[in-house]
Amino acid sequence: SFTPRVFSGIQPTNHLQLGNYLGAVKRFVAMQNDGMETIYCIVDQHAITANFQNPADLRHATRELAAAYLACGLDPAKSILFNQSQVPAHSQLAWVFNCVARMGWLNRMTQFKDKAGKNAEKASLGLYAYPSLMAADILVYHATHVPVGDDQKQHVELTRDIAAKFNHDYGVEFFPETQPIIEGAATRVMSLRDGTKKMSKSDPSDASRINLTDDADTIAKKIRKAKTDPEPLPETTEGLADRPEARNLVNIYAALAEITPAQVLAEHGGSQFGSFKPALADLAVDKLAPISTEMSRLMGDTAEIDRVLAAGAERAAAIADPIIAKTYDIVGF
Ligand code: ADP
Ligand code: NA
Question: Which one of 88, 122, 158, 288 counts the least CB within 10 Å of its CB?
Answer without folding.
Answer: 122
